[in-house]
Amino acid sequence: MRTGLASVLIALAASSASVSACADDVTKNCAVPAYLLTSDSTLSRVASAVRAGGPLNILVVGSRSSSISGAEEEAYPAKLQAALREKLPGILVNVSVELALRKTAEDVAPSLGKLAEAKKSTLVVWQTGIVDAIRSVDIDDFREALDQGVTSLQKAGADVVLMNMQYSPRTETMVSMTSYIDNMRVVAQQRDVPVFDRFTIMSKWNESGEFDLFSPVRGVSLAKRVHSCLGSALSTFVIETARINPTELGTKR
Predict the structure, then answer these.
(1) How far is Cα 67 from Cα 19, in angstroms, rounded to an integer?
(2) Phi-psi region for residue 26, left (φ > 0), alpha (ψ -120 to 50) or beta?
(3) Residue 211's pLDDT is what?
(4) How far is Cα 103 from Cα 115, in angstroms, rounded to an integer?
(5) Which positions carry the signal peptide feature in this UniProt record (predicted)?
(6) Radius of gyration of the chain (CA)
(7) pLDDT grade, residue 246 (50/70/90)?
């Protein structure tokens, strides 16, 4: 019974994940509080790569919510790449994606270091937590897996951004995510890596009416808008957290 429920919840998360921000008017909408777009931790390798003129190689490791079926060019990793290329003209920015479908943090962690080395990654954005929450993975096991993954990425020479799960009102009524979100913050603090708080950002968009994430009628159109906003917000987060000065580099935010 638990296996069946988990499958249903994963499918629900994937579809509402296919809700994951705005097309051409991203600066007018998708407002994000400034405190969610920076961190006390810094992305020193990103900063060094940009100041050296690139390349800036970013690897996104995530679940299905990192993609839009049949429209990958509209998903947030592609939007992140486009936004960074615009904000950092003259810097070669490459964003690649490694999907870890229906895998827990423990499933993914052992391969991260080698994956980062193979991709020559400057930065790895590790989006995780939803599968663990749906399967009620022991919270200590989740925290240990996160720690293992982050440590291996750092040893591989990559900066790390942890990204928590997306916000979905429907999923939240069935799955407790708070402990997983909190423990991700604990690991991030211990390993001095930033957390891109996608959950809170999307929750605020839902509360403000920017997006109706509870509506059963979502579709690809909403998914594209949400992903566009996420890509833009994440690009700002990367630049701010790397402490990159656009004036010095002749770039723009």
Answers:
(1) 10
(2) alpha
(3) 64
(4) 16
(5) 1-23
(6) 17
(7) low
For the stretch 107-127, pLDDT in tens is 999 999 999 999 999 999 999
Q: Which two tokens stand for residue 120?
A: 């020559």
Contacts of 80 (CB under 8 A, 6+ apart): 58, 60, 95, 231, 234, 235, 238
Phi, psi of 19 (to 5 degrees): -100, 40
Q: Quick one: 2-244 is in which CATH superfamily?
A: SGNH hydrolase (3.40.50.1110)
Residues across the chain: 253
Half-sphere exposure at residue 67, Cβ-oriented, CA atoms within 13 angstroms? 15
Stated as kind and residue range, the H or E segment containing 59 is strand 56-62
Domain boundaries, the chain: 2-244
Place of tokens 């999923």: 171
- Pull the structure tokens for residue 205: 């968009």
